[in-house]
């Protein structure tokens, strides 16, 4: 029972934190006014994509925490979560696309590092981060394109 309670806590932390930050920093009129690249997805795509990704992030973190709660992979997991939660307030809240690009590049690096560290400890945790890495790589290109165009 305690095992599933800890999973619930991971889900609340990641999904709850991500959704709260998302609602607190909605794109709004500023983002709507930006010149966007042709590959910019419609706004409705972001909420379901991030909801799924946050569940994967929580589950991977929970699995690694079960194996090695104070290990390097868990520390990297924590760093990526902080960077993830920092990006929206930097980009949408402060409207600072340059610093947001730095944050998202560091986020992508931490995701890839987590995959590498988790791979030999719990391959499933590594695989759970692969869609996240792909999405953040795309978001990095999108952030850079928005900076370039605006």
Automatic annotation (TrEMBL):
It is found in: Membrane. It holds the Pfam family TspO_MBR. One of its GO terms (cellular component) is membrane. The keyword Transmembrane helix applies. This is Tryptophan-rich sensory protein. Keywords: Membrane, Transmembrane, Transmembrane helix. GO terms for biological process: tetrapyrrole metabolic process. The chain crosses the membrane at residues 44-64, 76-94, 100-119, 126-149. The lineage of its organism: Bacteria, Pseudomonadati, Pseudomonadota, Alphaproteobacteria, Hyphomicrobiales. InterPro entries: TspO/MBR-related_sf (IPR038330), TspO_MBR (IPR004307). It comes from Mesorhizobium erdmanii. It is a multi-pass membrane protein. The keyword Transmembrane helix applies. Belongs to the TspO/BZRP family.
């Amino acid at each position: 029972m305690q095992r599933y309670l800890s999973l619930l806590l991971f889900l609340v932390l990641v999904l709850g934190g991500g959704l709260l930050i998302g609602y607190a920093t909605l794109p709004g009129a500023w983002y709507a006014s930006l010149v966007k690249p042709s590959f910019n997805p419609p706004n409705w795509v972001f909420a379901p994509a991030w909801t799924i990704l946050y569940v994967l992030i929580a589950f991977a973190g929970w699995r690694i925490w079960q194996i090695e709660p104070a290990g390097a992979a868990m520390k990297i997991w924590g760093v990526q979560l902080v960077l993830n939660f920092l990006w929206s307030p930097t980009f949408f809240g402060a409207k600072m696309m340059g610093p947001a690009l730095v944050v998202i590049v560091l986020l992508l690096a931490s995701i890839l590092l987590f995959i590498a560290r988790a791979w030999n400890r719990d391959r499933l945790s590594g695989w759970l981060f692969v869609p996240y890495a792909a999405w953040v790589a795309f978001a990095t290109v999108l952030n850079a394109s928005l900076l370039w165009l605006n």
